[in-house]
Amino acid sequence: MIGLKDVWVRYPDGVYGLRGVDLKFEGGFLAVLGPNGSGKTTMLKVMACILKPTRGSVFIRGVDPWALPEDKLLGLRRRHIYVQEKPKMLKGDVLYNVAYPLRLRGVSRDESRRRALEALEELRISRLAEFDAKRLSAGQARLVSIARAIAVNPEVILFDEPTAYLDRDNRRLVLELLKRLKDRGVELVVASHVGEVAEIADEAITLEQGKITGRSRRKGGSEN
Description:
By secondary structure, this protein is an alpha/beta fold. It has a single domain, classed as P-loop containing nucleotide triphosphate hydrolases (Rossmann fold, 3-Layer(aba) Sandwich). Helix content is 33%, strand content 28%. The chain is built from six helices and ten strands, in the order βββαβαβαααβαββββ. The strands form two sheets. The chain has a seven-stranded mixed beta sheet with strand order 5-6-7-3-8-9-10, with helices on both faces. The chain has a three-stranded antiparallel beta sheet with strand order 2-1-4, covered by helices on one side. β6, α6 and β7 (187-192) form a beta-alpha-beta unit. The longest helix has 16 residues, at 168-183.
């Protein structure tokens, strides 16, 4: 469970990313909707424990992550994966990029490569395994970043605009993947400015100017 209580985020330039947000995420699939600049990315970073709020409280399964020692906080971040909208690629080929987080977690080289290839195959991009990751198109980099996240089999994945830069077929591919991840028991928080994500989520919230302005709970793509 991830809980936010009266969370405010104020950036150095004085702009507020979040304003008094209260949220209790108890698993399943949560869609975070809103236009660009509404606070979606800020919320995901707070939930992923990579951005400390200016004010308010964050709880991960009842524990304040910011009170943890650094090694415990790192372990939590490795179980709660944040996939940013504009992913960064490391030098090397695509397979190395997808396998690298596994190597950081102590997984053997052979097992890391096997799991990385499996993730690439699920995204139908195994043909890119030996391609220079720095030369990927925006859409290809998006798919590789998703493969990199699912390869480590985390408890929670927080996706920021996972269908951005993708054509219709690949958007459909990613939406189908999200449904499979949910069925596998992976907890999902997905930020999007398009409604198709909300159609497959269990619950959706709407953000505007850093505040939650709407909530709906869904089942099987329809509101309860």
